[in-house]
């Protein structure tokens, strides 16, 4: 991976905020790669933490980095903090996540934490959510039925595919339908409720109330938005 100075600064700034004895939800994505790298350095220096990964990719990176791991089902109580990225975040701290395909696990782990720290390039901060793809994790046995139902309701969508033309599989062995929004998403909360009423849609990439503190990466450094 070619070094990205802004993402690297974000990852290291987030790692510096982790206190000794903390249980951490570790998100997914390229910025989290640097967070794991920085966290590994602190662990080697004596920091005592346990990490709960949100994806198989994150799990592999954490194992390589020799970060002690914690299975969510063995957790007593809550995680202290989850650190993750986002694809978009608006002025109300509503987010769209899931471009990397880990949205269901990311939402579970974020919900299991007392607080969430989001690390994101300032270019992903927008006035309104929109002009984007919104991922939905769906059951494979119903993906085409769900897509036809969405199209009847006026949505433009497609089943995410791998380079070889086969459906993309999440870590949960499910498929993803991407909804296309060329304009702003009006009333995201209402959209979330509408989508969740459709059987077979397991989770959406809309994240509400799960961004307690945001670190914004800029050319001049990292800014805290809380």
List its salient traits.
Rossmann fold; alpha/beta; Alpha-Beta Plaits; four-stranded antiparallel beta sheet; 226 residues
Question: What would you say this structure looks like, in words?
Answer:
By secondary structure, the chain is of the alpha/beta class. The chain has two domains: 5-125 and 208-225, Rossmann fold (3-Layer(aba) Sandwich), CATH 3.40.50.1360; 130-205, Alpha-Beta Plaits (2-Layer Sandwich), CATH 3.30.70.260. The protein is built from six helices and 13 strands. The protein has a six-stranded mixed sheet with strand order 2-1-3-6-12-13. Strands 8-9-7-10 form a four-stranded antiparallel sheet, covered by helices on one side. It has a three-stranded antiparallel sheet with strand order 4-5-11, covered by helices on one side.
Précis, in short:
This protein is of the alpha/beta class and 226 residues long. Helices cover 28% and strands 28% of the residues.
List the helices and strands and how they pair.
Blueprint (H helix, E strand, L loop, with lengths): L4 H12 L5 E5 L3 H15 L4 E5 L2 H9 L16 E4 L3 E2 L5 E2 L6 H9 L4 E6 L8 E9 L4 H10 L3 E4 L15 E10 L3 H9 L4 E4 L1 E2 L5 E6 L2 E5 L1
Parallel strand pairs: 1-2, 1-3, 3-6, 6-12
Antiparallel strand pairs: 4-5, 5-11, 7-9, 7-10, 8-9, 12-13
Helix pairs in contact: 1-2
Which strand order do you get reading across the main beta sheet?
Answer: 2-1-3-6-12-13
Order of helices and strands: HEHEHEEEHEEHEEHEEEE
Unreliable residue runs: none
Q: Tell me the number of strands.
A: 13
Q: What's the overall geometry?
A: globular
CATH architecture of the largest domain: 3-Layer(aba) Sandwich
Mean pLDDT: 96
Strand content: 25-35%
Biggest sheet character: 6 strands, mixed
